[in-house]
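User: Show me an example of a complex going from sequences to structure tokens.

Assistant: Sure. Here are the input components:
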Amino acid sequence: MRFVLRRLGFFVITLWAAITLNFLIPRLMPGNPAQAMMGQYRGRINPQAIHALEIAFGVNNHQSLLSSYFTYLGNVFRGRFGISLTFFPDQVTHEVLQALPWTLALVGVTTILAFALGTLIGLLAAWRRGGTLDSLMPPIFVITSSFPYFWLAMLAIWLFSIRFHWLPSSNGYSITDNVGWTWTFAYDAFKHALLPAMTILVTSIGAWILTMRNNTITVLTEDYVRMARAKGLRPWRIMWTYAGRNAILPNLTGFAMSLGFVVAGAILVEFVFNYPGVGWMFLHSVESEDYALMQGLFLLITVTVLTAILAADVATVILDPRTRDER
Amino acid sequence: MRRALLVLLLAGVAATVWTAVGSGAGAHRSAAAHRSAGGTSVTISNEQGATWTCGYNPFNASLIDWSFGPIYESLVFVDELKSGAATPWLASKYAWSNHNKTITFTIRPGVKWSDGKPLTAADVLYTFQLIKKYKALDLQAVWAVLKSVTRNGSKVTFKFKTAAVPYFYYVAGQTPIVPQHIWKSVKNPVTYKDSHPVGSGPFTFASCSPQVMKYVKNGHYWQHGLPKIDTVYYPAYTSNDPANQDLASGAAQWGSQFIPSIDRFYLSKSKDNHYWFPPVSNVSVFINLKNPILKDVAIRRAMAYAIDRSRVSQIGEYGYEPAANQTGIVTPTFKSWLNKGLAKKFSYNPTKAKQILTKAGYKMKGGVFQTKNGKSLSFTMINIGGYSDWVASAQIVQQELKAVGIKVTASNLSSTTFDADAYAGKFDLMYSGNEAGGPAPYYELRQELYSKNSAPIGKTASSNWERYYNKKVDSLIEAYAATTSSAKQHSIVDQLQAAMVRDVPIIPITEGVDWYQYNTKSIAGWVTQKNPFAKPAAYEVPDWGVMLLHLRPKG
């Protein structure tokens, strides 16, 4: 219990630090959003409009840094991140909530899938070390993981959509679709997610397989495994509850971290496949100096990563009795 | 050996399964078929690097592109590619009076908003009062020159502070008219999204998601029988490759973006694929005239001789953007304005460049010229690092200046930093094509040369970034505003060209173009070089609405 409480305290302090940094960093960058927007237009509107834009964005509103910090804190706790400059005049919260489901569905599901599959393959491969599975799967996926992502994605697009026309090459759904909870739309969205999901899976699964395999091999040499064998337990049970349960511990924290980073989206994936998620939104907010959107996204990521780590810590306490340091 | 065989076998099985699954799923294409259930449609591919906000407020700089043209219309349509030829639109006629200080528009009868209510002169008056009340809405800064707007029956009269002929383009051609009965209940028009716009244009809002905007035909449209296209799809592209891919495959029929090696990646894909890149404004080297060394016109002249503009065009811009000339007149778009004698000056001649510098008293030392005080002619040229074509072009400029003994260091900045530096005048040299152009060469020249568009170093200059101050040029620019006579306007532009050649305040290098690709397989009526009835890029407002009006199903 004390362990969990200590973790909770740590969580709160980190969160505060993150929120404060989140406030400061964008304000240290040069330029102002009105100029950024003029730049985006590359001469398509009257140059005089810079003044109109400065008024619209409230540039030079002469608020002191300290007072804007407290306004910011108050708004953060009410879930208000203000008006986005990229999606002017839309609310940041609204924009992020629109993009988030796409990223959660695509990157979230594939991350969980990659972890589950990778762990399973790693465990089985280690269990039958030198067997067919062990000599086949880890090498293949380690090789695919080391491909540069964009190259693999381009190859997949060329092969599966341009050459064979099996799967759509971009977007989250067909542009002629009516967005809604219908089977046709769900099927269409699924088809559009297949190619990006496959490429993420292929490039991320290798790491899980390798670490799980190596952890399991180390665990298998432990005395308690030998003891279990000596007791005559079923191999199946030894693999799961003796070897697997212990070998998965280090992987768990890694998994929690990557779950947290799901909300950051997969910038490259969303860029290559033109996917309407938060990944490219993140990139775009930095490029166009959209303080409000940047802060909203940074905070979202920080909170999710911290929560995920906290959850992983709790899970470790449950799985591993050694961490329950109650006296 | 056995293991290798197994690998091969497994791979084979996997491939077979894939084939089965793939063909079973059906080979649907991601983008729209041209003829959907609702009739003819056109799909636009205009990469914005962003998803849609689903707002249509035409007074919002980031939303105006999605509504001004097809949904909201202007009083008059001004065709920039035909030297500003004006077509009466929501106004059926107009007349200047009081020494070109007053203009009166007669509003066209029988025009209806898409909700069926009539459009009247009161709506026009309301629109201009709205952008007067909220300065942030006045994107064309029309109230900087307007004195008053009044209505009398179906007539709306605009009074200007001074003679204001060029402002016709902004007031009549670039200001969207909105319905009073909708907008009067809007609490804050600055932050208003206008997600279900009611306009007078040929199309209305059908649906929108961050990924695609859909427009359908307006049943109440005042030009009877038009439009001939039923649906417009405008998908969002966050990067260039998918956008180019959709164009090449014909999934999108109207493109407005840069395609590298366009002959191979686009033209060769179908005989129905075409493109045309009409030049609209210059991409130039801006020279900071407040710099103590660059103040000397001899250096600027030497630079103008030293740069091989056609080489920059060929290598830096794939030949898509033609070479510019020192007069600042974009050709062939504005060729009737060009003074051919002046345009020939400063054609590439590096030897002459060196001669000029030597004659002006600069001494070559170690390959670089020096001033009498021993300062090297060494400058920094700022550029936008994200525009790969500008980076390549700037590199060639840099090499060529080096060849005549002027050292230039490139500084590739983020567009935000670049703009901040440009506006504040914090640069020696600047590679930029951010001027807006207009329906005649005068508009760009005024942006570049008029002292009222400038500001002291450190203060925001709206477009005269090189800080050029010349009283004679200012009075020429003001004189143009007072005349509707084409002969007088030509004579003034001629003198402005002379100033460009005499003072070399900036060096035009290439001519920025409108990016435009189109597919004629099932749709006809596109803008062509022979019939330039509107600027053809989908990002041109309100021109893209006019383009959509002309499109029709083929056969």
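The lines above are the inputs; the final block is the predicted structure for all two components together. Residues 97-290 of chain A form a domain with the MetI-like fold fold (CATH 1.10.3720.10).
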